[in-house]
Here is the input.
Amino acid sequence: MDLLELFDDDDNEVIEFLNYQRRLFTVRKRIDHMTIWDDEDFRVRFRISKGVVLQVLGYIDDQISSQSERNLAVTSITKLLLTLRFYATVISLDAW
Here is the structure.
C-alpha cells in the first residue's frame, strides 16, 4: 500500500463532507382529531369523550401551550390528545 493512496482517501472524505447537502425542511400536515372523528370513534380511539377532553384542556391549557408559533409549534390540544392516546394504548413495561 502506497502512502499517497492513504492521503488520497482522506482527501475524498473531505470533499464529500464539503459537498454534503442537507435535506429540505418538510412539515407534515397535522390531523385535527376533534373534527375528523365522530363522538363514538373518538371515544374508542382516546377512551374519553370530546367534552371531557375540552374540560381538561380548559384546566391545563396555559401550562402546556407553546410560548411561540415558531417552527409550527404543536398546539395544546394536540399535546393533550397525544398524551391521552399514549395512556389509552400503553403496554405496561413490567410485562417485558
In short: Helices lie at 3-18, 33-36, 39-46, 50-64, 76-89. Residues 3-18 form the longest helix (16 residues). The two ends are 51 Å apart (CA to CA). The chain is about 60% helix and 0% strand.
